[in-house]
Write a structure and sequence with these properties.
Elements: E1 26-28, E2 35-37, H1 38-43, H2 59-66, E3 74-75, H3 94-105, E4 111-118, E5 121-128, H4 139-155, E6 159-165, H5 173-192, E7 197-206, H6 207-210, E8 219-222, E9 228-229, H7 233-240, H8 251-256, E10 262-263, H9 266-282
Parallel strand pairs: 5-6, 6-7, 7-8, 7-9, 8-10
Antiparallel strand pairs: 1-2, 3-4, 4-5
Helix pairs in contact: 4-5
This protein binds zinc ion.
Zinc ion (ZN) is lined by residues 29, 31-32, 34, 48, 50-51, 53.
Length: 283
């Protein structure tokens, strides 16, 4: 995972094997240890039928139950691929990391974006994929998100972002950080057009993504127990040298403190969006 804002060494949040769903016929929920048919988990929209734990899922899985027909009618920025201006080498050269990610996930970048509809209501949407270099925002992710807002303005259409990210993409250095300003600026232009922006947090929505466009939604919805913040709890704890409150930076804590408007289980999310979009279309 690439997170510009974390302390050196291990990042404060990372893909937890606990949150990943094993392949195969059976799947065990590592939160409650119950074992289920994989199919049952899928029918439950990748949440545990027993303890309601929300597994991390891909952007395409998210689209499958949120959008009509489970897909975009028109994709935005599909051919955009990142460059390597810094010739960055971490454990391996950045282009190789990108190539491996593309092979593994079948998508070009951590963000997919496009036009679609939810129960007939047109929306422009971007979705991040945590399995793609931690859903980190580099120049391509930032550009796609910016195009989403621009298309929203062109089409006079609500924008929805589904966020899952460790933050900015360190392999792109300052070009990555610039995406925070770029996406926030265009989200501001979109807002001044009087259009509605719904931001959805999934676990985790952190750092550069949270501190830019993801936190600017007119309505912020979160999946239960999603971690959302700027620096991670471990970094904050080390910095201020104090114990953090129970549930710090989790969705329920953030809702209690006014940062998140609605917590919705994945199973109720589409219905909730239909309700909101219906209100908006009446106005
Ligand atoms: Zn469970």
């Amino acid at each position: 995972m690439a997170n510009w804002f974390d302390s050196p060494g291990k990042p404060s949040i990372k893909t937890s094997t606990k949150a990943d769903i094993p392949d195969g016929l059976w799947a065990k929920c590592d939160n409650c240890n119950e074992v289920f048919y994989q199919k049952v988990i899928e029918e439950n929209l990748w949440t545990c039928p027993e303890c309601k734990f929300h597994f991390r899922i891909s952007s395409r899985q998210y689209m499958s139950f949120l959008l009509d027909e489970g897909k975009f009618t028109k994709e935005i920025g599909r051919t955009l691929i990142p460059k390597d201006p810094l010739e960055f080498i971490d454990t391996q050269p950045y282009p190789k990391r990108i190539g491996d990610m593309q092979k593994k996930t079948g998508i070009n970048e951590a963000c997919i974006a496009g036009e679609g509809s939810i129960s007939g209501h047109p929306v422009i949407m971007s979705l991040l994929d945590f399995s793609c270099i931690g859903g980190s925002m580099g120049s391509v992710v930032g550009e796609k998100v910016a195009r989403v807002f621009k298309r929203g303005i062109q089409n006079r259409c609500p924008v929805i972002t589904v966020n899952a990210s460790g933050g900015a993409r360190m392999q792109e250095g300052i070009l990555s950080l610039m995406q925070m300003a770029k996406t926030s600026a265009i989200a501001g232009v979109f807002a001044r057009e009087g259009l509605i922006y719904i931001s959805i947090f999934t676990d985790p929505t952190m750092a550069g993504v949270m501190a830019s466009y993801a936190s600017l939604g007119d309505i912020i919805i979160s999946e239960p127990n999603a971690l959302a913040g700027f620096a991670g709890p471990r970094v904050i704890k080390q910095t201020i040298r104090e114990e953090l409150p129970v549930g710090f930076q989790r969705a329920e804590f953030l809702q209690k403190h006014g940062f998140i408007d609605i917590i919705s289980s994945r199973k109720n999310l589409r219905e909730l969006l239909v309700k909101i979009l219906s209100y908006v279309s009446i106005q």
